[in-house]
Amino acid sequence: MARRASGIDAPPPRPERVAAFRTGLSAESRAAALLMAKGYRIVARRFRSPVGEVDIVARRRNVLVFVEVKARVRLDDAAECLTPRQQRRIAAAAGAWLAEHPEDGASDIRFDAVLVAPRRLPRHIAAAFETD
Fold it and tell me: Mean pLDDT, the chain, as a whole number?
């Protein structure tokens, strides 16, 4: 059995959860590579806050970009997976980032998506969504 930080024994993760985690890491690596090839500098990966998570935080010139990576079997399926609820959580996490990094407060902010599917080039969607 796996041991949690609290010292309590926990069952090992289910195989499908492990596979999904690995798929996510691979997709994020492919997305980061695409963004770097387009001239972005990766500032952080898997930024977590109490209010949400951002897969990739990147910068290009004066634009700070919060990127959600979606991996599915088809790119079109990935595009449909960015729900309004998820958008709110990403925006909240971006707010947490800005609170922790006040030097980024003067940057232009954008929310992008990178869609990833097997045997396809990732698709970068700039300004995938906006917030209030």
Answer: 88
